[in-house]
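queue> pop job 88
queue> type: inverse folding (structure -> sequence)
queue> payload:
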């Protein structure tokens, strides 16, 4: 909820409204393993992508795996094979690339000083891994980037993130919305669908940025801030009807700004969720990928078979198992 508000283009002008976003870290782990490779070379392998290798000083950052090459370059890592294994569908709008970046940065940060050129000046921490992954992605993405995906991957859990616009101090404030001992209960109130079509987040995000910069959508984004705050308050009180209503109100605003944020399948999933008094929203920036729903446990139980039936008409589309990840970034058990 509230995605895109974690981009400074939005949260600086909207600072007086206390912009925030909400996310849930789900237990579809992305694992990164580092191993030695040919001297002077960097190789990256990742499920859903063709493996690539380049000389350290010639690795392209505009490659589909360019972010991983950029992270290796930052740490001065050569002669290394980066192997990424993700449990989520590729390009499913579940923050997979950001999670992989956090995992890779965490792996480099945990390496003993001297094995990579810059490790001696750094130490491992979740906050450091998240922010470093974010700034490196921002440096090569070519479009404005947010921070909430990296934070979810680093910290885990069910959190609201408040974006700070002060020049001094932290970039964000973390608020736990649902504590760890209630995660199992929350899992009964949510469902997650992969719609079978990969997404490109920059396509929709770019439209939102352009609209906002033109001055055409300021009031709509102010409404999105309010919807997100209402959702967070309702979920903290375990009022799933009010949370669903706030989610659906935000969803309506998004569709008004960018009708293509949902494809035909997404529209059907949203409409069926409404029939069962549930909320439904795209993950990430929409335009393909995943949809998630929230509501009373009984309403979600009735919604799931309807979503399964709708998804069965499209190859690869399916409901994903929803388990909340409470741990966030782990490096060799740290």
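queue> result:
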């Amino acid at each position: 909820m509230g995605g895109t508000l974690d981009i400074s283009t939005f949260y600086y002008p909207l600072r007086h409204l206390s912009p925030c976003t909400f996310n849930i870290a789900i237990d579809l782990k992305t694992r990164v393993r580092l191993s030695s490779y040919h001297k002077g070379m960097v190789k990256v392998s990742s499920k859903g992508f063709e493996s690539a290798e380049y000389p350290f000083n010639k690795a392209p950052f505009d490659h589909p795996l360019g972010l991983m090459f950029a992270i290796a370059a930052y740490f001065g890592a050569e002669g290394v094979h980066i192997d990424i294994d993700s449990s989520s569908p590729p390009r499913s709008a579940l923050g997979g690339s950001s999670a992989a970046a956090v995992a890779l940065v965490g792996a480099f940060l945990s390496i003993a000083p001297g094995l990579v050129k810059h490790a001696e000046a750094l130490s491992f921490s979740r906050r450091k891994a998240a922010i470093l992954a974010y700034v490196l992605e921002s440096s090569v993405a070519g479009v404005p980037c947010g921070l909430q995906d990296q934070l979810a991957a680093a910290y885990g859990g069910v959190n609201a993130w408040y974006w700070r616009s002060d020049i001094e101090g932290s970039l964000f404030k973390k608020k736990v919305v649902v504590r760890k001992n209630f995660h199992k209960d929350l899992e009964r109130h949510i469902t997650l669908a992969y719609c079978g079509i990969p997404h490109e987040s920059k396509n929709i995000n770019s439209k939102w940025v352009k609209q906002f910069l033109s001055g055409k959508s300021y009031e709509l984004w102010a409404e999105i801030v309010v919807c997100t705050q209402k959702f967070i308050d309702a979920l903290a009180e375990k009022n799933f009807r009010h949370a669903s209503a706030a989610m659906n109100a935000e969803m309506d605003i998004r569709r008004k700004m960018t009708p293509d944020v949902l494809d035909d399948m997404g529209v059907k999933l949203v409409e069926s969720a409404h029939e069962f008094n549930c909320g439904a929203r795209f993950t990430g920036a929409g335009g393909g990928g995943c949809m998630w729903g929230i509501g009373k446990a009984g309403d979600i139980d009735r919604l799931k078979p309807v979503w399964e039936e709708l998804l069965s008409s499209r190859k690869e589309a399916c409901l994903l198992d929803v388990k909340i990840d409470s741990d966030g970034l782990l490096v060799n058990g740290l």
